[in-house]
Amino acid sequence: MRSVLFVLLAIFLLPRIAGGAPKPHVLSFGRWATVKWFVGAGQDKPLDLKVRALYLDSRLKEFTLGTPHDVTDRLIVVRRAFRLNDALPEETSSVPNWRWQRGGWLLVDRITGHVSPINLPEFDAFYSRAAWYRDYVAYCGISDDGKNLYAMVAQLGRRKPILKKALGDAPADDMPDSACPAPSWQRQPVRVSFSSPLDQKLTYSVRGHAVDVVNDEEEEGTK
């Protein structure tokens, strides 16, 4: 009799347990599409921008550009793209005047399906080029007033950058990605190098949450 009760109880509870288990999410990217991105002082110079959709369980979540970076087997980061309505208030057309723009970076969790923006201090969506390594990202940042240029290294999960070093004046160019070339990473030991507007190469050693400048003797010793 007791064994029969156990069997009946199992039959009753198993569907509820299975129904309460979280369903795995499916993240996927759509096909690449080429769109026009208008840049320049008057935002009248069209450039080709390749974007693709990010889907969660077959539902559109965001538009993205560039190659995603796998931080862990669970987390990825990817650059965001979006459409901005450029219509003026006095324009009576009911059709929005969409214009594509580059955005910041997104953190995507493959397990939960959560997509969230990453706060990168001084990152400029127009001028900055980011280079990822592990959970670090290096880029040239622009001050809020647009006058100063910084070498920046940020780490996921930390609000403040682990490196912020002045590089001089910010570029006056109206072309994208003109702040500085993309920084370059190396490992064993972990280092990141920046090229300043004066063509000076600056290399920093990254140890956990700390960053130290690498002098010429140290750099020669690792070659």
Word description of this protein:
The chain has 2 domains: 23-118, no CATH class; 119-223, no CATH class. Helices cover 11% and strands 47% of the residues. It is built from 2 helices and 15 strands. The strands form 3 sheets. Strands 1, 2, 3, 4, 5, 6 and 7 form a 7-stranded antiparallel sheet that branches. Strands 8-9-10-11 form a 4-stranded antiparallel sheet, with no helix packed on it. It has a 4-stranded antiparallel sheet with strand order 12-13-14-15, with no helix packed on it. The longest helix is centred in the first third of the chain and has 19 residues, at 2-20. It has 223 residues and is mostly beta strands.
Tell me the Rg in angstroms.
Answer: 24 Å
- Broad structural category: mainly beta
Straight-line N-to-C gap:
77 Å
Low-confidence stretches: 4-9
Net shape = flat
Strand share of the residues? over 45%
For the sheet with most strands, the description reads: 7 strands, antiparallel
- How much helicity do the residues have? 10-25%
* Number of spatially distinct domains: 2
Helix run count: 2
Could you report the average pLDDT, rounded to the nearest whole number? 86
